[in-house]
Amino acid sequence: MSISWGSRGEERKEGRKGKGREGKGREGKERKGKERKGKERKGKERKGKERKGKERKRKESDGWADRDEVIEGYEAEASGGITIKLQSPEVLSFDDYFLKIRLETNKRNPWFPEFWQHRFQCRLPGHPLENPNFQKNCTGNESLEENYVQDSKMGFVINAIYAMAHGLQSMHHALCQGQIGLCDAMKPIDGSKLLEFLLNSSFTGVSGEEVRIDENGDAPGRYDIMNLQHIEANHYDYVHIGTWHQGVLNIDDNRIQMNKTEMNIAQP
């Protein structure tokens, strides 16, 4: 029995064919791999955009509130709109403190001169914190009441600081057992343990409201419900029509003003 081998030329042809098939197979795999990676990347980008969109919606849910700049130039179109804003009473005690501060008497805050220069766009010649970017000199007689409007979330900021203080106090009471100052059991501060005390804290807020932190780390939800109304010619204003407090809705339907004007709606 004899076995015959093909010629070297035929071997080379078969070799080239085999390599060609291997090359095509490899190219096909690479192409499929690139397509798969492309689809995965597009999928991730799409999910990322969807996630950002959801986050944006969550962040902007109470962003309109009673802000005039949101509707500037579109008052007629926005008229009748119902908005919500975080319920935060004006903190009168803060105004009483803040508006009486003077440059020459506020010595406890080393950064106050820097704030003063920025607030009034002036410089303090010879001061260690002098800001040379401002041309005019500060007189020290400037008043913080000038163009002052309290931030609508001031109460939340103060209550957040109170919450941290109450959490630290509870933690100190439990771990230090009456010892004055920071005891060894609290060194260094364990953030996860502090969180446990924060979640169990409750206190009276700066405006007299009850503040308690639930298991999710959230304080009670309180919202004012506003309605943008046409008051008189070329004048629109937000009118308080109700409240939402921890799942309980109170709204005065008789105070709601709807938008009855005809508007041209652009067709897609």
Automatic annotation (TrEMBL):
SUPFAM superfamilies reported for this sequence: Periplasmic binding protein-like I
Keywords, in A-Z order: Disulfide bond, Glycoprotein, Membrane, Receptor, Signal, Transmembrane, Transmembrane helix
Compositional bias segments (type: Basic and acidic residues): 20-33
Record bears the keyword Chloroplast: no
Any GO CC annotation of this UniProt entry: membrane
UniProt domain Receptor ligand binding region: residue ranges: 61-230
Sequence segments annotated as region (Disordered): 1-64
The keyword ATP-binding appears for this protein: no
This protein's name: Metabotropic glutamate receptor 1-like
GO biological process: G protein-coupled glutamate receptor signaling pathway
